[in-house]
Amino acid sequence: MDELPENIEITEDIAPIINKFITDGQYHTIGLLVDSNTSIHCYPLIESALPDHFLIHIASGEKHKDLSTCNGIWEEMTHHQMDRKSLLINLGGGVIGDMGGFCAATYKRGINFINVPTTLLAQVDASIGGKLGVDFQGYKNHIGVFQDPQQVIICPEFLSTLPTTELRSGFAEVVKHALVFDQQYWNKIRSSPWDSQVWSEHITHSVFTKSSIVAQDPTEIGITENFKFWTYHWSCH
User: Fold this and answer.
1) Predicted TM-score of the model (pTM)
2) CATH assignment at residue 208
3) Hey, which of 75, 77, 123, 178 has its CA 20 to 30 A from 55?
4) What gap in Å lies between CA 198 and CA 100, rounded to an integer?
5) What's the distance, CA 185 to chain centroid?
6) What is the pLDDT of residues 65-80, one digit of tens each?
7) pLDDT bracket for residue 222 (50, 70, 90)
Protein backbone atom coordinates (compact mmCIF):
# COMPACT_ATOMS: atom_id res chain seq x y z
CA MET A 1 0.00 0.00 0.00
CA ASP A 2 1.65 3.25 -1.20
CA GLU A 3 -0.91 5.70 0.18
CA LEU A 4 -3.20 5.86 3.15
CA PRO A 5 -6.93 5.43 2.55
CA GLU A 6 -8.65 8.71 1.75
CA ASN A 7 -10.51 8.73 5.06
CA ILE A 8 -7.35 8.63 7.21
CA GLU A 9 -5.22 11.68 7.87
CA ILE A 10 -2.18 12.02 10.12
CA THR A 11 -1.37 15.58 11.08
CA GLU A 12 0.67 17.57 13.57
CA ASP A 13 -1.84 20.45 13.40
CA ILE A 14 -5.35 19.13 13.87
CA ALA A 15 -7.32 22.36 14.22
CA PRO A 16 -7.42 23.47 10.55
CA ILE A 17 -7.92 19.89 9.34
CA ILE A 18 -10.98 19.23 11.47
CA ASN A 19 -12.38 22.69 10.79
CA LYS A 20 -12.12 22.24 7.02
CA PHE A 21 -13.72 18.79 7.13
CA ILE A 22 -16.71 20.08 9.09
CA THR A 23 -17.06 23.21 6.98
CA ASP A 24 -17.00 21.22 3.74
CA GLY A 25 -19.64 18.83 5.10
CA GLN A 26 -22.14 21.60 5.87
CA TYR A 27 -23.61 19.63 8.76
CA HIS A 28 -26.84 20.72 10.44
CA THR A 29 -25.84 19.64 13.95
CA ILE A 30 -22.50 18.56 15.42
CA GLY A 31 -22.18 16.43 18.52
CA LEU A 32 -18.89 15.65 20.26
CA LEU A 33 -18.59 12.48 22.33
CA VAL A 34 -16.10 12.74 25.19
CA ASP A 35 -15.38 10.87 28.39
CA SER A 36 -14.24 12.13 31.78
CA ASN A 37 -10.60 12.19 30.61
CA THR A 38 -10.83 13.56 27.07
CA SER A 39 -13.24 16.32 28.07
CA ILE A 40 -10.51 17.75 30.32
CA HIS A 41 -7.26 16.95 28.50
CA CYS A 42 -8.12 16.68 24.78
CA TYR A 43 -11.21 18.76 24.07
CA PRO A 44 -9.38 22.08 24.72
CA LEU A 45 -6.98 21.24 21.87
CA ILE A 46 -9.76 21.31 19.26
CA GLU A 47 -12.54 23.38 20.87
CA SER A 48 -11.65 26.62 19.08
CA ALA A 49 -11.61 24.86 15.69
CA LEU A 50 -15.18 23.61 16.01
CA PRO A 51 -18.27 25.51 14.89
CA ASP A 52 -21.40 25.46 17.03
CA HIS A 53 -21.63 22.04 18.72
CA PHE A 54 -22.72 20.23 21.85
CA LEU A 55 -20.95 17.73 24.10
CA ILE A 56 -22.07 14.24 25.06
CA HIS A 57 -20.32 13.17 28.27
CA ILE A 58 -19.85 9.52 29.23
CA ALA A 59 -17.83 7.81 31.95
CA SER A 60 -14.42 6.49 30.90
CA GLY A 61 -13.41 2.86 30.84
CA GLU A 62 -14.30 -0.46 29.22
CA LYS A 63 -16.84 -1.28 31.94
CA HIS A 64 -19.11 1.47 30.57
CA LYS A 65 -18.96 0.21 26.98
CA ASP A 66 -22.46 -1.25 26.94
CA LEU A 67 -25.99 -0.67 25.68
CA SER A 68 -26.88 1.30 28.79
CA THR A 69 -24.30 3.94 27.87
CA CYS A 70 -25.49 3.81 24.26
CA ASN A 71 -29.00 4.63 25.46
CA GLY A 72 -27.67 7.79 27.05
CA ILE A 73 -25.81 8.75 23.86
CA TRP A 74 -28.88 8.16 21.68
CA GLU A 75 -31.01 10.19 24.11
CA GLU A 76 -28.62 13.15 23.83
CA MET A 77 -28.53 12.87 20.04
CA THR A 78 -32.32 12.85 19.98
CA HIS A 79 -32.61 15.71 22.47
CA HIS A 80 -30.41 17.87 20.24
CA GLN A 81 -32.48 16.90 17.21
CA MET A 82 -29.65 15.39 15.23
CA ASP A 83 -30.84 14.38 11.79
CA ARG A 84 -29.19 12.42 8.98
CA LYS A 85 -27.27 15.54 7.95
CA SER A 86 -25.61 15.70 11.36
CA LEU A 87 -22.12 14.66 12.47
CA LEU A 88 -20.85 12.87 15.56
CA ILE A 89 -17.20 13.39 16.49
CA ASN A 90 -15.70 10.67 18.67
CA LEU A 91 -12.86 12.17 20.72
CA GLY A 92 -11.09 9.50 22.73
CA GLY A 93 -9.56 6.06 22.78
CA GLY A 94 -10.86 2.72 21.57
CA VAL A 95 -13.95 2.69 23.78
CA ILE A 96 -15.11 6.08 22.51
CA GLY A 97 -14.41 5.15 18.89
CA ASP A 98 -16.15 1.77 19.11
CA MET A 99 -19.20 2.96 20.99
CA GLY A 100 -19.57 6.37 19.38
CA GLY A 101 -19.26 4.87 15.93
CA PHE A 102 -21.81 2.20 16.80
CA CYS A 103 -24.28 4.79 18.06
CA ALA A 104 -23.82 6.94 14.94
CA ALA A 105 -24.10 3.96 12.57
CA THR A 106 -27.40 2.89 14.12
CA TYR A 107 -29.00 6.28 14.86
CA LYS A 108 -31.67 7.01 12.22
CA ARG A 109 -30.18 4.10 10.22
CA GLY A 110 -26.82 5.84 10.17
CA ILE A 111 -25.34 9.32 10.31
CA ASN A 112 -21.81 10.46 9.55
CA PHE A 113 -19.14 10.25 12.22
CA ILE A 114 -15.43 10.89 12.48
CA ASN A 115 -12.89 9.45 14.89
CA VAL A 116 -10.27 11.59 16.57
CA PRO A 117 -8.25 8.97 18.48
CA THR A 118 -6.40 10.29 21.51
CA THR A 119 -4.53 7.21 22.77
CA LEU A 120 -1.60 5.55 21.06
CA LEU A 121 -3.47 2.23 20.89
CA ALA A 122 -6.43 3.87 19.17
CA GLN A 123 -4.19 5.79 16.78
CA VAL A 124 -2.22 2.75 15.62
CA ASP A 125 -4.99 0.16 15.65
CA ALA A 126 -8.46 0.62 17.13
CA SER A 127 -9.54 3.60 15.02
CA ILE A 128 -8.63 1.90 11.73
CA GLY A 129 -11.01 -0.47 9.99
CA GLY A 130 -14.58 0.41 10.87
CA LYS A 131 -15.13 -2.19 13.61
CA LEU A 132 -17.81 -0.78 15.90
CA GLY A 133 -19.54 -2.32 18.86
CA VAL A 134 -20.22 -2.68 22.55
CA ASP A 135 -19.86 -5.38 25.18
CA PHE A 136 -22.90 -7.45 26.14
CA GLN A 137 -23.42 -9.65 29.19
CA GLY A 138 -19.71 -10.25 29.62
CA TYR A 139 -18.97 -10.78 25.93
CA LYS A 140 -16.54 -8.22 24.48
CA ASN A 141 -17.71 -6.41 21.31
CA HIS A 142 -20.66 -8.80 21.10
CA ILE A 143 -23.09 -6.30 19.57
CA GLY A 144 -21.85 -4.20 16.66
CA VAL A 145 -21.51 -3.41 12.99
CA PHE A 146 -18.84 -2.71 10.41
CA GLN A 147 -18.99 0.90 9.24
CA ASP A 148 -16.10 3.13 8.20
CA PRO A 149 -15.97 6.64 9.67
CA GLN A 150 -16.10 9.51 7.23
CA GLN A 151 -12.68 10.49 8.49
CA VAL A 152 -10.05 9.40 11.00
CA ILE A 153 -7.90 12.34 12.04
CA ILE A 154 -4.79 11.27 13.92
CA CYS A 155 -2.69 13.82 15.78
CA PRO A 156 0.37 12.76 17.83
CA GLU A 157 -0.05 15.88 20.00
CA PHE A 158 -2.73 14.07 22.00
CA LEU A 159 -0.12 11.59 23.24
CA SER A 160 1.30 14.28 25.51
CA THR A 161 -1.86 13.94 27.61
CA LEU A 162 -1.26 10.23 28.33
CA PRO A 163 0.39 8.54 31.31
CA THR A 164 3.29 6.20 30.56
CA THR A 165 1.13 3.11 31.16
CA GLU A 166 -1.19 4.14 28.32
CA LEU A 167 1.74 4.79 25.99
CA ARG A 168 3.19 1.37 26.75
CA SER A 169 -0.16 -0.27 25.98
CA GLY A 170 -0.18 1.28 22.51
CA PHE A 171 3.51 0.60 22.03
CA ALA A 172 2.81 -3.12 22.41
CA GLU A 173 0.63 -2.93 19.30
CA VAL A 174 3.38 -1.07 17.42
CA VAL A 175 5.81 -3.84 18.37
CA LYS A 176 3.35 -6.52 17.26
CA HIS A 177 2.92 -4.92 13.84
CA ALA A 178 6.68 -4.77 13.39
CA LEU A 179 7.31 -8.32 14.61
CA VAL A 180 4.67 -9.84 12.35
CA PHE A 181 5.06 -7.73 9.22
CA ASP A 182 8.34 -5.82 9.11
CA GLN A 183 11.59 -7.23 10.49
CA GLN A 184 13.57 -4.14 9.55
CA TYR A 185 11.23 -1.88 11.48
CA TRP A 186 11.39 -4.21 14.47
CA ASN A 187 15.18 -3.91 14.42
CA LYS A 188 14.83 -0.13 14.37
CA ILE A 189 12.43 -0.12 17.32
CA ARG A 190 14.51 -2.37 19.55
CA SER A 191 17.70 -0.42 18.86
CA SER A 192 16.22 2.75 20.40
CA PRO A 193 15.65 3.33 24.13
CA TRP A 194 12.16 4.14 25.38
CA ASP A 195 12.74 7.88 25.69
CA SER A 196 14.02 8.06 22.09
CA GLN A 197 11.03 6.45 20.40
CA VAL A 198 9.56 8.65 17.66
CA TRP A 199 5.80 8.29 18.07
CA SER A 200 4.87 10.00 14.80
CA GLU A 201 6.93 7.45 12.84
CA HIS A 202 5.42 4.54 14.75
CA ILE A 203 1.91 5.84 14.13
CA THR A 204 2.49 6.17 10.39
CA HIS A 205 4.04 2.72 10.10
CA SER A 206 1.30 1.00 12.08
CA VAL A 207 -1.51 2.83 10.29
CA PHE A 208 -0.13 1.65 6.95
CA THR A 209 0.15 -1.89 8.34
CA LYS A 210 -3.36 -1.97 9.80
CA SER A 211 -4.87 -0.34 6.70
CA SER A 212 -3.26 -3.01 4.51
CA ILE A 213 -4.75 -5.75 6.66
CA VAL A 214 -8.19 -4.15 6.59
CA ALA A 215 -8.05 -3.71 2.81
CA GLN A 216 -7.56 -7.46 2.43
CA ASP A 217 -10.02 -8.55 5.12
CA PRO A 218 -12.45 -5.72 5.99
CA THR A 219 -14.90 -7.86 7.98
CA GLU A 220 -12.35 -10.15 9.66
CA ILE A 221 -13.34 -13.31 7.84
CA GLY A 222 -9.73 -14.44 7.75
CA ILE A 223 -6.48 -13.30 6.19
CA THR A 224 -5.97 -14.98 2.81
CA GLU A 225 -2.93 -16.99 1.83
CA ASN A 226 -2.14 -14.37 -0.79
CA PHE A 227 -2.00 -11.70 1.90
CA LYS A 228 0.29 -13.84 4.04
CA PHE A 229 2.57 -14.28 1.03
CA TRP A 230 2.49 -10.54 0.30
CA THR A 231 3.28 -9.51 3.86
CA TYR A 232 6.16 -11.98 4.06
CA HIS A 233 7.80 -10.49 0.97
CA TRP A 234 7.02 -6.94 2.10
CA SER A 235 8.82 -7.57 5.38
CA CYS A 236 11.90 -8.82 3.53
CA HIS A 237 12.42 -5.58 1.59
Assistant:
1) 0.91
2) 3.40.50.1970
3) 123
4) 29
5) 23
6) 999 999 999 999 999 9
7) confident
